[in-house]
Amino acid sequence: MKKITLATLVLLYGNRVWAADVIEPPMASIPAGSFTVQTENDESYDVTVPAFQMAKYELTVAEYSRFISDTGYESANNCSHRIDSGWFSGPSDGSWDNNIYRFSEFHPVVCINYDNAVAYTQWLSRKTGKDYRLLSEAQWQYVVESGGLQEYIKAEGKKREQICDVANLADLHAQNMSEKLYGASYTAAYNVENCSDKEVTLAMVGMYKADKYGVHDLVGNANEIMADCYVSDTDKLKSEGVTKTGKECKAFFSKGGAWHWGIQNVLERSQKSRDFLGAIEGFRIVRDTAGQQLESQEGSTWFVNTLKKEQVKARRVHAQVANYPKQVTGVKLTEFKEKVELSWQLSNDEIQPTYQVIRQDLLNNHKEVIVGSGINGRVTDLNPLPHKARYSVVAYYGDRPSLHSETIDTSAYITHAIPGKIEGEAFSQGTDIEVMNSVQEVKEDRVFASLGLAKAQYKIDVSTAGQYALQPRVYHTGSSKRVEVKLNGRVITSFSTSSEQGWQVVQDVHINLPKGEHTLSLQGLEARLSVNWMDIRRL
Question: Which Gene3D superfamilies match (predicted)?
């Protein structure tokens, strides 16, 4: 009987994955070194990482397919992968080989949980005789620090505006196309990058520039599951750079952000339960070399050569994605008795964009276009709102929008009678506060102010001096969040959230209010905190 070789199989089956052989992953050589970790408490400590090898790419569908075919392993199949108006709120019917992100065999494998990823590394280690495992948080951080990515991801980085050259993140193209393809919006809660990486969701591995070690997609694309056990957000890395383990560990870290998030999420420490199966989570492997600095590993010839061919095809598709205009700058607002004038700096691009001016009613979060095709950098709103409004300007190339400009508010405000109820969005000053809608709340509680670390000021008129009970309805993420309460700029008390993630009415906050007009402020001291309303009643 004639022997069928792997080359013959490739000719017969094209790009289909054949499970007969293990795919040896291309590996980068990472030298030993150290880096400094800066904590939220302004403390610092050093971490030393021994030499190791890191996979150049996130693990692909092709590689995981061979593991499944060889072992019959039953991977989890309850992944929420479909995108709709609520993003991943559809049925949990996805698996590694049945999800909307399986665009090719050379895309990262997603809809994978921690145990699935570990099972793969154990299988690959047995097959190759090499010690493969998930990367540790220390290894991820070290390669980001030393590989040249910091200049792209830090706010003051020299290449910050070129982040789309090295990472697939929430960007202009994703913002524009997600609504059209899936009915999903990148709301104000997302920090969308001011560039285009040419992808809407998950990208084929290796489509963006590598770091100095030859590693691709360490930032963005798939969110990478780490080997480290999660205990709390304040866990320190091991000083010797080894994996943090724990008895009966129920949750693990993930790092690197994803195509669904902006750069602010990249350095965040996300935690995933052991059995969490997410549509944006994948993994990357490393090889433990016992501290020896080995040469880079080329990887299986079929995999490397076929990936190169598929990347050429994908880059042709990228080349067809048209450019997007730059974000509008220099927006100014001038208020008159019966009109509001806005101006902005015109683009220096060879092709001059058209512009839209958007007005947001902060009391009901209604937005409307004041001008649909302004080109001279100046607009007059002849019917301004009697209360506070927020304006922004968007540039367009055809139907392709820029990011919104920085917003600018009118000076109008409401004076709230006390005792009484104050809506969170009815502030007199709050330029850094986003006013948003919650689709899960009843109509009267739907609009809220996303406070975070910002300050919201409210003009109040107290009818009678005395002791009052302040009862704010706030949203928090589960951990305790602190808020300072100020009167005319002076701190008079504070309160903290408690209980599980969600909305809660904080009780037992007592304040002393003198009679007359004053400024009452809420100063957020923690991120991810929102205010729906606050009820102020006489004790």
Answer: Galactose-binding domain-like, paralog of FGE (formylglycine-generating enzyme)
Q: How far is CA 347 from CA 192, 325, 329, 375, in A?
A: 20, 9, 9, 10
> How does DSSP classify residue 185?
-
Dist CA 371 CA 381 (whole Å) = 9
Residue 295's Cβ-count burial label (10 Å; 0-12, 13-18, 19+) is exposed
Q: What whole-number distance in Å separates Cα of residue 391 and Cα of residue 368?
A: 10
Q: What is the DSSP letter of 422?
A: E
Q: Which amino acid is at 539?
A: L
CB-based contact 509:468 (threshold 8 Å) = no
Strand bridging mode 509-513 / 420-423: unpaired
The Cα 240–Cα 238 span in angstroms is: 5
Over the stretch 247-271, which tens digit does the pLDDT of each residue have? Answer: 688 889 899 999 999 887 677 778 8
In whole angstroms, give the CA distance from residue 279 to residue 15: 24
What is the residue-wise DSSP string for 521-536? Answer: EEEE-SSS-EEEEEEE
Query: Residue 525 and residue 132: Cα distance in Å, rounded?
Result: 42
Q: Residue 258 and residue 278: Cα distance in Å, rounded?
A: 12
Q: Which among 498, 493, 506 is positioned nearest to 533, based on CA atoms?
A: 506
DSSP 24: P
- Count of helices and strands (H, E) across the chain: 7, 30
Q: Are 279 and 108 in contact (CB under 8 A)?
A: no
- At how many degrees (to 10) do helices 301-319 and 6-13 cross? 30
Closest CA to 205 of 90, 60, 328, 361: 60
Decide: 259 and 280 in contact? Cβ < 8 Å: yes
Three-state DSSP class for 165? helix
- Tracing tokens 């997609």 back to the chain, one arrives at 217
The two structure tokens encoding residue 223 = 């969110």
Which helix (H) or strand (E) segment holds residue 254: the answer is strand 251-255
What is residue 447's three-state secondary structure?
Answer: strand
Weakest mean pLDDT among 6-15, 188-197, 400-409, 482-491: 6-15
pLDDT of amino acid 174: 96
From the list 168, 172, 252, 235, the residue with the least C-alpha distance to 205 is 168
Cα–Cα distance for residue pair 229/453, rounded to 1 Å: 29
45 by DSSP, 3-state: which? strand
Nearest alpha-carbon partner for 363 in 327, 388, 334: 388
Find out whether the peptide bond into 419 is cis, omega within 30 degrees of 0: yes
- Quote the radius of gyration of the chain (alpha carbons, Å): 27
Report the alpha-carbon distance of residue 509 to residue 524 in Å, rounded. Answer: 16
